[in-house]
Specification:
The chain is an alpha/beta fold. The protein has a domain of 112 residues: Aldolase class I (TIM Barrel, Alpha-Beta Barrel), CATH 3.20.20. It is 38% helix and 14% strand. It is built from twelve helices and nine strands. The protein is globular. The relative contact order is 0.12. The mean pLDDT is 95. Bound molecules: iron/sulfur cluster. Iron/sulfur cluster (SF4) binds next to loops.
């Protein structure tokens, strides 16, 4: 896995490609031109020490995302708001805020110690959110240069990767790109996401993401709409997982939910085995009723409890049936 540190992190490859300083109207064109160069370099890439120009492909990405904030389409909600003036569904403007950052020892074995940065806010609105204290607050303003220094310090303390999470990282992609422009150590980037980003965002961020730590929650759009207020979940998330499969490593997380074994767990396992076989699959049993489900258990009664033994057993049967690569 990339976190072995044997390869150069993708954001450093992107930063080694010199870019032309162009006007805003030419940013897309310059990005597309350099992306072709990036793809070639990615194939050739070795551990040799690259040179870093003052202005690079990575800087173009940061500029391009800042421009797109004027008509935000970072995720498939496609609010189209100008985030310099107002806020969309995720309630994020231009500035990014975070709740905490630390060396996380509770992630999957191959990721730890993982330098986890918990950004505030989310593009979903899950009724069972276990991080609602992070999602619905703005805690500390992110200063990209300072955060880059923190990432370097955590690297010296032993982090194997920098793990952008929340909430969700997508709505902060412009800030994350600016942070990475300032990071000087070879640290793999983990994008810990709900996988509901737009194709336009994928086009930009995929060149800096080494590991997609992606949630696959629902097997039916009805479940996604009911519990997370999102539309077209299946189409968007399967599209994004297929794309991630082509350009990085995937560690897929599926949170098994009570009464959703056949509509969600089964359908996801079946799709994964056919479309992105052998990806690392974390079948998670730690669901607990939180947030609105805990406040109004009668309204959400089918998910207002933990999993029972039969459901856990059934999830493992499904994993065996589809020969999932469980971690
Ligand atoms: S990130 Fe998504 S939810 Fe937030 S403003 Fe942009 S399109 Fe809307």
């Amino acid at each position: 896995m990339i976190c072995s540190g044997e390869r150069l992190a993708k954001f450093l490859i992107a930063r080694s490609i010199e870019a032309e300083r162009v006007g805003t109207e030419d940013l897309e064109r310059e990005h597309n031109r350099l992306k072709r160069e990036f793809k070639k370099l990615l194939k050739e890439e070795s551990l040799a020490e690259p040179e870093f120009p003052d202005y690079s492909f990575l800087h173009i990405k940061a500029e391009l995302l800042k421009l797109r904030l004027k008509n935000c389409n970072f995720c498939e909600r496609r609010c189209g708001v100008n985030r310099y003036e107002s806020k969309g569904f995720c309630k994020c403007g231009v500035e990014s805020y975070y709740a905490s950052e630390f060396l996380h020892m509770g992630e999957e074995d191959e990721l730890i110690p993982s330098h986890t940065i918990f950004f505030n806010r989310c593009t979903f609105a899950c009724v069972f959110c276990q991080n609602y204290d992070i999602v619905y607050e703005d805690d500390y303003l992110v200063n990209p240069e300072e955060m880059a220094k923190i990432i370097e310090i955590r690297f010296l303390q032993g982090s194997r990767n920098v793990n952008f999470v929340g909430g969700n990282p997508d709505q902060h992609a412009h800030t994350i790109m600016e942070i990475l422009c300032n990071v000087r150590v070879n640290i793999p980037v983990v994008w810990n996401s709900n996988m509901y980003h737009s194709e336009e965002l994928a086009e930009v961020i995929e060149d800096v993401v080494d590991v997609w730590l992606g949630d696959f929650k629902y097997g039916r759009d009805e479940c996604a709409e009911k519990y997370s207020k999102v539309k077209n979940y299946w189409k968007v998330v399967t599209r994004n997982f297929k794309r991630a499969y082509e350009n990085g490593e995937i560690l897929l997380r599926h949170l098994v939910m009570p009464n959703h074994l056949e509509c969600c767990t089964y359908k996801i396992a079946e799709w994964v085995s056919k479309n992105i076989p052998n990806v690392k699959f974390n079948m998670m049993f730690q669901y607990r009723p939180e947030y609105l489900v805990a406040m109004y258990p009668e309204k959400w009664k089918e998910i207002a409890r933990r999993l029972n033994r039969e459901e856990m057993k059934r999830a493992m049967e499904i994993a065996r049936e589809f020969n999932l690569n469980l971690v």
